[in-house]
Amino acid sequence: MKIALSASGKDLDNNLDLRFGRSPYFIIYDLDTDQFNIMENRGESSGGGAGIAAAQQLIDESVEAVISSNIGPNAFNLLQSSDIKMYKGNSIPCKLLVEMYKEGKLQEIKESGPSRKGGF
Asked: Which is nearest to 85 in space by CA: 103, 67, 102?
């Protein structure tokens, strides 16, 4: 099973980036192998639709869960319709959030955050 974290940097020691659509990177973590890959977020620099671009990128990677914080309505609906669960994280190292996910300690996001309309 693969999970994705919106990350501020290129390794698990970096903190979670709270902005889903505008995070610079995604960490794709495979829970079966404990291996991870870093992906640049294609939506980060778009003028609008950053969340949708980010969500589609993670759908294409076949992730089953996302750990982030602020997920706008369009990205939320796209992830939800693809049966991807979303979990709320804080600005702490991603490696801690992976452990918290494994232990079932993260809160599932049940509704979208506000739309930023291309804003940061």
From this structure: 67
State the pLDDT at residue 87. Answer: 98
pLDDT over 70 percentage in the chain: 93
Tell me the C-alpha distance between 11 and 20, whole Å: 17
The DSSP bridge partners found for residue 86 are: 66
Q: Which residues contact 119 (CB under 8 A, 6 or more apart)?
A: none
Dihedral sign for Cα atoms in the order 78, 80, 83, 86: positive
CATH of 2-108, one of 3.40.50.670, 3.30.70.360, 3.30.420.130, 3.30.2130.30: 3.30.420.130
